Amino acid sequence: MKPLLLHGHERAITQIKYNREGDLLFSSSKDNKPNVWYSLNGERLGTFNGHQGAVWCIDVDWTTTRFLSGAGDNTLKVWDCETGKEIGNITTNSSVRTCLFSYSGNMAVYTTDRALKHNCEIFIIDVRNVDESISHADPILRIPIKGSRVSSILWDNLDETIITGHESGDLIKWDLKSGKEISSTTREHEQQINDMQWNKDGTMFVTASKDHTAKLFDAADLMLLKTYKTERPVNSAAISPIFEHVVVGGGQDAMDVTTTSARVGKFDSRFFHMVFEEEFGRVKGHFGPINSVAFHPDGKSYSSGGEDGYVRVHNFDSSYFEYNFDY
User: Which regions of the chain are under pLDDT 50?
Assistant: First the structure.
């Protein structure tokens, strides 16, 4: 299982995303150029040039025609996937921390950080016909956040609700028609939720938190189903589309890394059984914490992006597909 090493970034990877078919892999990092790669052979297809700060979040719509990126230069940009040209630019009051296309691709959501007397806010925008006018257009919905800031976000399959994960460990579900919270706040995590990802059919999602756990939740009522424990902060977690497997990636904070060797720093991807919560495999390789993990849509490979600036694409061996739990 020799991985493909994709090195097109000069600084730490912040997020990686596959498109719906899985032939393209998008990556963003703390340098200001998101990249797109062929996932099959690791060849770089191109870069999206225009940001002036660290790119924190990216997303691609289900037709792979438009690409979204939010950055620390207080802008959210919409790009044409085919040409790599910027087609829309929205200026915000603070860093854009999360961004996501809706399931239909007609709308997008983004959230901003709290900074310089500006509160954290959630914005819903219409992205059907994007041009220069989007920078002046009013958002469809604007929700100011009084409490802790939003650190991760998910959009449900009917475009009716969004789920936000917060710095305090809260999970909140919002109704987009009224702009109000639907359910009472769920607090199963003790610290910041770094990442949330759906399972294949959108009935459950997995969260990754600084409190050293990843957790599986039911999407309808945010009920906690399973917990996957590690001994270090979890930065990202993903669910396999074909098996009941969860992969988690993390590691101690970057500023503490120099005090330990790579072996002690535990920078490996860890595989858990989704139902039994048991760890059954580890993949080493990164020289630093893993910041983002993603399964290929066909479940036959997965990728991880790390603090070392590399994206590693791992194709699973036949032994992975033949492996069974005894029960």
Answer: none
